Amino acid sequence: MGRRDISDPEREPSTPTAPASPEHRQAGVDSGVSEGPRGSGADISEKAVERAGRTIEQPDQRTSQRRSKYEIRGQSYSLRSSELDAMADIGRLRVVDVRDLARFVYSGNEARMRSDLENLRKQGLIEQKDIHRAHKPARRLVTLTARGVEVARRASGLRREQHLYHGMVKPKELHHDADLYKVYRKAVEEIRRKGGKPLRVRLDFEFKESINQASAAARDLPKDMRERWLAALADEHGLSVEGGRIHLPDIQIEYQTNEGRIERENLELVSRNYREQGIRGKAAAGFRIYARASDSGRIRRALRDTGFAGEVLAI
Description:
Elements: E1 3-4, H1 22-25, H2 46-51, E2 68-72, E3 75-79, H3 81-93, E4 96-97, H4 98-104, H5 110-122, E5 126-133, E6 136-144, H6 146-156, H7 174-193, E7 197-203, H8 204-217, H9 223-236, E8 241-242, E9 245-246, E10 251-256, E11 262-269, H10 276-284, E12 288-291, H11 296-302, E13 313-314
Helix pairs in contact: 3-6
């Protein structure tokens, strides 16, 4: 087993990049991993640097069972590439159903996935929890720990602006949040099919803090000035204003088109709990609408006279 200080002799070294911003480091502040010197390069060597600009890659066909040692803030972690891919996806979406993780990251190889998750769990990088549902089998969900966010950030070489999440929040929304992984994966597959390259994923958690605070600051402006201000704010984030407010999607994927343009696609998973007005508002905001198969009929009926009914995508 090789020992690596976030380096890989098979990759070409490159110039160190700037450290992640405080916003993106925040998720790892309470990780319990011992603090090392920042900005000196003592904890990050060529591998993390070379991969720091990595886009959202489709897990490749790397089949090596060999794990490598990564030294991060004085702690040693034994990881292989499939575990790094899994941690990156879990961190982007906060919570993932392990069955979906097996499908998308491990090509259906559940035994390999279980082995990887057990290794990550023993090192304190993930947490798993069984969530029970009425009249349905329990779901096993997985999330990163705060330490897992730090390790994923350092070892996976994700783009600096990519936010990572840890912990399960809002218990009543866990099933919805876990299903967002399938929405994300379907959208990414379509982007790639058209020759695009996914770059960044943003969840509504990330939007709410910045946009809601900014919107509140403009509340007392004259109406016409507030409308212009909100329109500019929405445009900055690739969103739109409907009914005097900025609609926030469940997921936004920023990607590069085949022609080199940077585009954003806003995605919403709509359920039977949405009011008809809310469903129409999401469609009017330009969001791509996804629904579970059991909900898609009601969603299409709500959009029947809007022109969007035929564009509801099933997960």
